[in-house]
Amino acid sequence: MNFKFKQSGYRFEAYNEENVSTFEKLFDIFKELITYTSGDFDEAIDWLKALDKEYNLTTEDYTIEDFIEDLKKKGYIKEEIKPDGGNKISITDKTEQAIRKRALEQIFGKLKKSASGQHETSKKGLHGEPSGDLRAYEFGDALDRISLTESFKNAQSRQGLSNFNLTEEDLVVQDSYHRTQMSTVLMIDISHSMILYGEDRITPAKKVAMALAELITTRYPKDSLDIIVFGNDAWPINIKDLPYLNVGPYHTNTVAGLQLAMDLLRRKRQANRQIFMITDGKPSCLKMADGTYYKNSAGLDPFITGKCYNMAAQARKLNIPITTFMITSDPYLQQFVDRFTKSNKGKAFYSGLKGLGELVFRDYEQNRNKRMK
After folding, report:
1. Helix H or strand E encompassing 228
2. Beta-bridge partners for 186
3. How far apart are CA 373 and CA 364, in angstroms?
4. What is the structure's pLDDT at 350?
5. For the purposes of burial, counting CB atoms within 10 Å of the CB of 92, is it exposed (0-12), middle (13-18) or buried (19 or more)?
6. Contact at 8 Å (CB) between 173 and 135?
7. Given a cut of 60, is residue 17 above it in pLDDT?
8. Where do the record's region annotations for Disordered lie (predicted)?
9. What are the pLDDT digits (tens) for 21-42?
C-alpha cells in the first residue's frame, strides 16, 4: 500500500508488480518454499532454481546467486561452519519473523476482504480505547487510526519538503490498549497421517499457527499464545520453532495434548482461556501409568475415546472451551468429534485445508470479543 503525495492531498496508489524488484519477487517465493521445506535452506533454493528454470524468474543481470548474496547482506540468512568443516546456511530470526508476517497477510488479509464464512468479522476487537501514544503502523491497523500529520512529518524529514512519497514506513497510528486478555493454547497434530494420502496437511497448520502468533503479538500483546504439538506424546514449542516443524512416525495421543494444554492454562491469570485443536485423525494412542503406550489405529477405540471425553468434560468444568478444527471430512470420525464437542460444550469445524486459516481467525476474534464483554 502506498500513499502518493500531491499538492491537492494524497491518494492510494494501486500495487504494481512492475515496481517490485527481482529480489522482492524471489523473496516472496522463498518465504513460501522455506515454510514448505521446514526451514531447509538448501532444499528451498533447489526448488527456487527449478521454478526459475521453468518460469524465468531471474535475468542475466540478477541471478539466484545474486539473490543469495542479497539474503546474506540483508541479514535473512547466516553461514556457519559444520563439524566436518563444510558450510551450512540457515535462516535467521529476521526471516522467521518475515515468514510469520507473510502468513498473517495471506490469511488475515484475505479474511478482512471476504464477506463469506461461518462467522462475521468483528472490528471491535482490533481497536480498543486510544492510549494517547503513537507507534509505527503495523499490518491490520485500521486506516482511521493513522495520524496523517505525524506521518507526513516523517516523510518530509526523510525526503524533504517537496515531491515526497508517503510510504508505509512513514505511517504512525494512534495506539490503543485493551482492558482484558485472552489465553489461548493451539494444539497441532503432528502424527504421520498429516502427510499421508498425498496431501500436505502440516504446512497449512504451520502457517495458521505462525499467522495467529503474529496477530497476537502485534495486535493483542497482552494476550498469550502457547503452541503444543502432539503425536505419541505432547510437548510445547516456541513460536520461533514453527517454520521447522515436521511430522513424525507417531500415532495420535489427543489426551496427552489436552492434559498439557489444560496444565498450561491453569497457570494463566487471565479469566478468559481457550483451546484450539487442529487435527486430521482419530485418537489412537494413550500413555499408560507404567510408561508404556497403548495404541490402536483400527477404528475408534472406546478405551481411548472415553479418556478424550473425560478430558473434554474436565476442561468444561474449568470454563475452558475447546474448538476442534477437523481437517478431514470422514463421517466416521465426525461421530467422535461431535460427542467430544458435546462433552465440552465447545465447537467443531470440518473445514478441510482450504478454509482452515479463515476459520481459526474468525473464531479467535469471535471468541475474544464474546468473552471480553
Report:
1. strand 224-230
2. 227, 276
3. 15
4. 82
5. middle
6. yes
7. no
8. 111-132
9. 999 999 999 999 999 999 999 9
Three-class DSSP category at 261? helix
Q: Could you identify the residue written with the cell 489465553? A: 183
CB 282 within 8 A of CB 336: yes
Residue 165 pLDDT: 73
- Strand (E) or helix (H) holding 317: helix 302-317
Single-letter code of the amino acid located at 350: Y
Task: Enumerate long-range contacts of 137-144, CB under 8 Å, 24 or more apart.
Answer: 137/168, 137/171, 137/172, 137/173, 138/173, 138/218, 138/219, 139/101, 139/104, 139/105, 139/108, 139/109, 139/218, 140/104, 140/108, 140/112, 140/215, 140/218, 140/219, 141/173
57's CB contacts (< 8 A; 6+ apart) are 22, 25, 26, 29, 48, 51
Please tell me the predicted confidence (pLDDT) of residue 111.
57
pLDDT bin (cut points 50, 70, 90) of residue 129 is very low
Query: Is the pTM above the cut of 0.85?
Result: no
pLDDT tens track for 298-332: 889 999 999 999 999 999 999 999 999 888 777 87
Across the chain, mean pLDDT equals: 83
Instruction: Identify the band that residue 213 occupies on the pLDDT scale cut at 50, 70 and 90.
Output: very high
Q: How far apart are CA 171 and CA 42, in angstroms?
A: 37
Alpha-carbon distance of 120 to 248, in angstroms, equals 36
288, exposed or middle or buried, with CB in 10 Å at 0-12, 13-18, 19+?
A: exposed
For the record, the C-alpha cell of 142 comes out as 485500521
Helix (H, G, I), strand (E, B) or coil at 78: strand
DSSP secondary structure letter of residue 185: E
Number of residues assigned to the chain:
373
CA-based torsion, 348, 300, 197, 278: positive or negative: positive
Contact criterion met (CB below 8 Å) for 202 and 245? yes
